[in-house]
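Appendix C reproduces, verbatim, an entry submitted by the partner laboratory led by Prof. M.T., so that reviewers can inspect both the input and the predicted structure.
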Amino acid sequence: MGFRQYHRFNTSCMAWTRIVGFGTALLMALPVLLTQPARAQTPPSATNAPIPAVSPQVKPSDPSAQNVTDYCVRDAAARNSFNEFLRAYESGQVNQIRGRLDPAMIGYQRFIDGVTSDVTRLKQMRVLLTDVQMQCGPDVAVFNANWEKRFLDGSTLQPGLHTGRISVLMHRDTAGWRLVSMAGDNLFASSMGVAGRIVLASTVSVNGIGTTSTASPITLEVIDPDLAGTRTLTVQVVTTNGDSENVVLTEGTPGRFTRSTLNISVATATPNNGTLELASGANLIVRYLDQQPGGNRPASLVTAQARVVGTSTITSPPTLVFTPNPLVAPLTAGPGVCTSSTSTATISGITAPATITISGAGTYSINGGAFTAAPGTVTNGQTVSVRRTLITPPSVTLTITVGTTVANVVINC
């Protein structure tokens, strides 16, 4: 090999050595480069312009894609299958629903029976889902949503509206997506249970109410779709001042039971007498035992509470009997002492101060105090004594009024 040939060979070897060395260094650095975040390239014309947000691509075929995760959007077949399940329920296609259920579903036959009952009894059903939340995988999907179901009851021709919240589990097998299980309020089979609820105002007023039973505009409502068509429903109403009554509500629209008036008074509480005896400051509590609250839950007690407010008016104190009362046994006294003879009564049964007046030739005393003929005020438990102020005529009738209750006392000389 001549000098020139040797020189060319040596130069080529050195060049290949540099290329191989650079390639080796690049391979060694590649893992590090892959772990480094890429630097955004900003066009010179938009140096200070904000970078626009990139919205996920949404399939037009998914009507509620704005409520689901990106993965659920990319795998919308589960949601589409559930939508088809809803449409089959609305149109009464029980066989199609049967084909969309997992045969191993717990309560499969009971579910089918409930759907059959619904599509037979409820007409023109429309279901609306809101606040849909989804979690999706290749073979499993979970939906959580609020639902609203409108319909026409075929037996009463009354429109109805039921609401609730449901959780649905679906999985995919060789036949496609199937419904595996549900929790919460079952919109597809009303007889399987939906949690009932009580509608009650936050306060109940006793303004103008006395001790006699008075029909007052107090509205109770229980909404329980399970009981649609049962006509009546009984709830227990209790008060913290000691009363307890069973109240019957009447079905207006399917699954809605109402009572617009209650008999109330401010007398001493007497349970199970048909009248709610209330006291200002007490609480009124409505209790309803929901036998089928849905979601495979046991029977649940549903309650609602209202505060009793206002001032009562005393209309008929239970006790205002003067003893001795000459109307029963004449009280006689000699001319010198007849004006000192008294008849006494104890005020009971009132829950607020009441006005007392006297008419006729007489005066009254409260709790042994000074006698007077001027109007005054008495409270529960006080004693009232009356006496005549004239010797003649032989018989004098004194009229005592407490609130709106009147008692006549005859004192003879």
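Residues 5-13, 15-70, 314-318, 326-336 have pLDDT under 50 and may be disordered. Additional entries are available on request from the coordinating office.
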